[in-house]
Amino acid sequence: MKTRTKVIIAIGSNRNQEENVLKAHEHLSCMFKNSLFGPRMWTEPIGLENSDKFLNQVMLGETICSKKSVLAALRSVEQRCGRRIRGPYRKVDVPLDLDLLLYGDEKLHESEWERDYIQSSISYLEEKDAKRDRKYLR
């Protein structure tokens, strides 16, 4: 049996936010075992001019896939939701942004870990995950 690796994924959208975050939720729930989602939070765009607010969410889950495979799968979901990888609007118009923040013990996107919504979401998810684990021990 393959070992499961813990992952944390940040979800963000500044176009058709509700619809695209819901699509991400659906895709990620199918892709990762034991998925838990934090609360959705609206945030101001960081470093983007003329951008709508972002709707953000953080997911905690498990995978048996390699980090490279997880990253490729996240890019595929982004593109299916309309994310452009080239062109003048690729950094302003963000239908869906999926960032792998944690793969096992490896932290990625270090600067994102400092954001308030990331910190509060991770705390929420860790508490929810611990409660779930206790249920299985009874």
From TrEMBL:
- Top EC group: transferase
Q: Which GO terms describe its biological process?
A: folic acid biosynthetic process; tetrahydrofolate biosynthetic process
Q: Which InterPro entries match?
A: Hppk, Hppk_sf
Pfam families of this UniProt entry? Answer: HPPK
Name any one GO molecular function: kinase activity
Pathway assigned to this chain's UniProt record: Cofactor biosynthesis; tetrahydrofolate biosynthesis; 2-amino-4-hydroxy-6-hydroxymethyl-7,8-dihydropteridine diphosphate from 7,8-dihydroneopterin triphosphate: step 4/4
Enzyme Commission number(s) from the entry: 2.7.6.3
The record places domain 7,8-dihydro-6-hydroxymethylpterin-pyrophosphokinase at 8-119
Keywords in alphabetical order: ATP-binding, Folate biosynthesis, Kinase, Nucleotide-binding, Transferase
Domain of life of the organism encoding this protein:
Bacteria
**Ranges annotated as spanning the membrane:** none
Please give the family membership noted in the entry.
Answer: Belongs to the HPPK family.
Summary of the function given for this chain in its UniProt record: Catalyzes the transfer of pyrophosphate from adenosine triphosphate (ATP) to 6-hydroxymethyl-7,8-dihydropterin, an enzymatic step in folate biosynthesis pathway.
The entry's protein name is 2-amino-4-hydroxy-6-hydroxymethyldihydropteridine pyrophosphokinase
Species of provenance: Segatella copri
